[in-house]
Write a structure and sequence with these properties.
The chain is of the alpha+beta class and about 120 residues long. The chain is built from three helices and four strands, in the order H-E-E-E-H-E-H. Helix 2 packs across helix 3. The longest helix is centred in the middle third of the chain and has 22 residues, at about 60-80.
């Protein structure tokens, strides 16, 4: 069973066309460890998709960074009010993130999400 702590399926982007729509229609913000693409959606909540290419590292490194991204997003949904914005986010993890600690990576991602919401306000 999916724990209530997890990120529910409906809050995730899964299909290639959903990612492509965000890339084509959306805007992007750069941060130290990620590139954040975002576009409005027609849903009552926000969704997130995460990509980490082989340039980032081996599968275990990519998976760790994707877990960190989901965890940071999940923790920030409430404090930043992400679900009030009806947005789709795609986080592209940069290769230098492989060297980061969870704390640095998480703070970097929080800052870029905050910047995005400040721009939208």
């Amino acid at each position: 069973m999916d724990s209530p702590q997890g990120l529910p399926k409906e809050k995730r982007l899964a299909k290639r066309r959903e990612f492509l729509r965000v890339y084509e229609k959306g805007r992007k913000l750069f941060s130290r460890y990620t590139v954040l693409f975002f576009a409005p959606n027609d849903l009552p909540h926000s969704r997130i998709g995460i990509t980490a290419t082989k340039k980032v590292g081996k599968a275990n490194v990519r998976n760790r960074l994707k877990r960190w991204t989901r965890e940071t997003y999940r923790r920030q949904r409430e404090p930043l009010g992400l679900d009030r914005h009806s947005m789709d986010f795609v986080v592209n993890v940069k290769p230098n993130a492989a060297e980061a600690s969870f704390r640095d990576y998480s703070q970097d991602l929080m800052k870029v999400l905050q910047r995005l919401l400040n721009e939208r306000a």
